[in-house]
Amino acid sequence: MTANQNPAPALSAHGARIPLLGLGTWDLRGRVCADMVEAALRMGYRHIDTAEMYDNECLVGEAVRASGVRRGDIFLTTKIWPSHFAAADLARAARDCLTRLALSEVDLLLLHWPNPQIALPETIGALCKVKRDGLAHHIGVSNFNVALIEAAWKATSEPLICDQVECHPYLDQSKVLAACRRHGMAVTAYSPIAQGIAGGDKVLARIGAAHNKSAAQVSLRFLVQQDIVVIPRTSKKTRLSENAAIFDFSLSDSEMAEIAALSRAGRRLIPAGFGRPDWD
């Protein structure tokens, strides 16, 4: 993907069109954050992911405006931290996110981690109201296991369009993926290159060599070929281009199976966070 290339293809979920490739902004700060978001948008990215916990929403909003890309062409996601999951707190936190972004609405608002200290129906009800009030076009969850996905759907009056989870070749998320698909939800993969580990993998490198691609590109392709949205985070503009060049090749069935076998390592990189769910 270059400045003049078409944006990545999008995945449909309950009326949302989610670009299969986005830029994750966790741990991006200062001018690096603003520069990377602006560069990604100018390059052709149309999906940006942030969160109130990342403490960079102001910079993301600044970069969106500086990019010159029409706001309606950008799919922007932010996430509410679990300490704000009580009904009144969630509405206020959502408005605070918009203030920092200097936007009237986001495309997708997620619950960042489950919070067992606050009844899920209360939080989901508040999230639905935020959507009805026009602060978010779509809503969803993050780091929810299968049981929590089912509980959220029982509590919701609005469609939940995605679950954002750690997902890469070393971690089998087939149960979560199946649960999401039962409900017409997308799965968005954070850490899709396993925080750089995939870039040094010999199996992925060998498969990549057959396609003139890097091991990291194979890791991303493995996911998007399953209609899993990927939001790799990078602080290097050269990586933006590399991460985007994943839609001009396909992996064979045998290559997909070989990559899937890497998940036997069961390597989870992100420890259970605020809600400490029992992972599937």
Any overview of this molecule?
It is built from 10 helices and 10 strands. It has 280 residues and is of the alpha/beta class. It has one domain: TIM Barrel, CATH 3.20.20.100. The strands form 2 sheets. An 8-stranded parallel sheet has the order 3-4-5-6-7-8-9-10. Strands 1-2 form a two-stranded antiparallel ribbon. Helix 6 (174-182) links the parallel strand 8 (160-166) and strand 9. Helix 2 crosses helix 3.
Topology:
Blueprint: E1 10-13, E2 16-19, E3 23-24, H1 30-43, E4 47-49, H2 57-67, E5 75-80, H3 87-101, E6 106-111, H4 120-132, E7 136-142, H5 146-155, E8 160-166, H6 174-182, E9 186-190, H7 202-211, H8 215-224, E10 229-230, H9 237-244, H10 253-260
Parallel strand pairs: 3-4, 4-5, 5-6, 6-7, 7-8, 8-9, 9-10
Antiparallel strand pairs: 1-2
Helix pairs in contact: 1-2, 2-3, 3-4, 4-5, 7-8
Condensed summary:
The protein has helices at 30-43, 57-67, 87-101, 120-132, 146-155, 174-182, 202-211, 215-224, 237-244, 253-260; strands at 10-13, 16-19, 23-24, 47-49, 75-80, 106-111, 136-142, 160-166, 186-190, 229-230. The chain is an alpha/beta fold and 280 residues long.
Structural class based on helices, strands and sheet pairing: alpha/beta
Q: Terminal Cα separation, in Å?
A: 35 Å
Report the CATH architecture: Alpha-Beta Barrel
Flag low-confidence runs: none
The CATH class designation is Alpha Beta
Number of domains: 1
Helix content: 25-40%
Shape: globular
- The CATH superfamily name is NADP-dependent oxidoreductase domain
Mean pLDDT: 95
What Rg do the Cα atoms give? Answer: 18 Å
Share in β-strands: 15-25%
Order of helices and strands: EEEHEHEHEHEHEHEHHEHH
CATH topology: TIM Barrel
Tally of strands: 10
